[in-house]
Amino acid sequence: MTDIQIRHYAVEFGTRQTEVQRKLREETLALPEANMVTSPPAGQLLAFLMKTIGAKRVLEIGTYTGYSALTMALALPPDGRLITLDASEEWTAIARRHWREAGVADLVALKLGDAIASLERLLGDEGEGAFDFVYIDADKENYDTYYEYSLRFIRPAGLICFDNVFWGRSVADPQDHSSETVALRRLNAKIRDDERVDMSMLPLGDGMTLVRRRS
Ligand SMILES: C[S@@+](CC[C@H](N)C(=O)[O-])C[C@H]1O[C@@H](n2cnc3c(N)ncnc32)[C@H](O)[C@@H]1O
Q: Which GO terms describe its molecular function (predicted)?
């Protein structure tokens, strides 16, 4: 049994995907940057966690073609809201098309532009503690900045999830000094020792860290 075979098994028996999720994933997998898309098991976990804590207000940093946003929007109650941030008009056009097709477009607000500028504006618009759940999946060098914003945005006992915390396993390779690897290595150590939160790092896909704000 190879790694690929067991990953296919986990998708088939560990996830429930709608027809639109499948279509969006298929369209995304044909793109040169396909490896950026959140995996179905990771999406399934995000949706499960959202429902577990009754998340109504969700923030995502890093939309791409909208697979994780679609998955999270499908886990929202009818009066829920997902705000998702990305700089790319081209990729998010694919996202919007599929959100419409899935009937969740009214629940999703896309903010186009640099994520840090959008976060700064959101602080003014939404205020601190405005979100139940945050998913961070954008440029790795800025993860720590996104983390600090998220701690202001998240309500006590709300969850923050980070994708790609292994960065292709490079975080555990002492010879790797790329800017993304160094940023993630520092952040992983910071979160482990951060008294503001409870945390759990899962070896799911490229590594996912779950953080719960303590108070
Ligand atoms: C890994 S992908 C997100 C994948 C997405 N969550 C999914 O499941 O398909 C990262 C995204 O972050 C966006 N991004 C990277 N740096 C950014 C920045 N500084 N501001 C806004 N968006 C950024 C990219 O345009 C890209 O779409």
A: caffeoyl-CoA O-methyltransferase activity
Q: Tokens 């860290």, residue? A: 209
Domain with 131 in it: what CATH number? 3.40.50.150
Q: Across the strands, what pairs with 211?
A: 160, 199
Asked whether the predicted pLDDT for residue 118 surpasses 90, the reply is: yes
User: Hey, what are 20's tokens?
Assistant: 């639109």
Parallel/antiparallel/unpaired status of strands 81-86 and 57-61: parallel
Residues with CB under 6 A from ligand 1: 36-38, 62-65, 67-68, 85-88, 91, 114-115, 137-139
- Per the rule left: phi > 0, alpha: psi between -120 and 50, beta: everything else, 45 is alpha
- Nearest atom in ligand 1 to 36's CA: 1
- Complex-level ipTM beyond the 0.90 threshold: yes
With pLDDT > 70 as the criterion, what percentage of the chain qualifies? 100
Closest of 32, 125, 21, 121 to residue 74, by C-alpha: 21
As for how many domains the chain has, the answer is 1
Average pLDDT of the chain is 97
Bridge-based pairing of strands 131-136 and 81-86 is: unpaired
Task: Give me the domain span that covers residue 179.
Answer: 3-213
Q: Which long-range contacts (CB under 8 A, 24 or more apart) does 2-6 make?
A: none
- Report how far ligand 1's centroid is from the alpha carbon of 212 (Å): 23
Ligand 1 nearest atom to the CA of residue 71, by list position: 8
Q: What is the pLDDT of residue 186?
A: 98
